[in-house]
Amino acid sequence: MGLHGKLVAAIEFKAGGGDVFHELLRHKPHQISTITPELIKGCDLHEGEFGHVGSIICWDYIIDGKVKKAKEVIQLIDEEKKLIQFKVIEGDLLELYKDFVFTSHIETKDGIDLVTSTFEYEMLNEDVEHPISTLSMLIDLIKAIETHHLAQP
Question: Which side of the chain, N or C, has fewer Cβ within a 10 Å radius?
Fold first, then answer.
């Protein structure tokens, strides 16, 4: 069994196009805990500015009923692709994975906006499971943000 993995989920996003999700994740991630407190408990800026490469953000999130932490550095932003990439530098994920990178970008296919989320990771050993529950939480988060924005006047 290989120790490297990649998981991808592409979720349709109807609330104002994918721009809404990208702008929230890039410039206002601290607001996500207000929209989805059942999934994200907090998001704090530790260094730099929201939405800038090199900035460090700390997330408190819930997986399988347990609060987890992840400190991430923004390592890539591409406005044309509406892409932002985070590398985990501290936290619970690094107890299982040597490297963990999360990329979010917006794809438009046939007039449909898709929020595409990609996890690329290296497991510490063969006993570590793929981060399916983390990807599932992220899918729930995307759908909850969509529902929240669709309910706005």
Answer: C
Give, for all 153 residues of the chain, the pLDDT tens digit.
569 999 999 999 987 666 889 999 999 999 999 999 999 999 999 999 999 999 999 999 999 999 999 999 999 999 999 999 999 999 999 999 999 999 999 988 888 899 999 999 999 999 999 999 999 999 999 999 999 988 887
Residue 81: Cβ within 10 Å count? 14
Find out whether 86 and 57 touch, Cβ atoms under 8 Å: yes
- Report the C-alpha gap between 104 and 26 in whole angstroms: 10
Predicted structure pTM score:
0.93
What is the Cα–Cα distance from 49 to 57, expressed in whole angstroms?
9
What angle do the packed helices 132-150 and 18-27 form, to 10 degrees?
Answer: 110
Cα dihedral 94, 99, 76, 27 in deg (nearest 10): -20
Q: Read off the amino acid at residue 26.
A: R
25 and 43 Cβ atoms separated by less than 8 Å: no
95: Cβ–Cβ under 8 A, 6 or more apart, which residues? 124
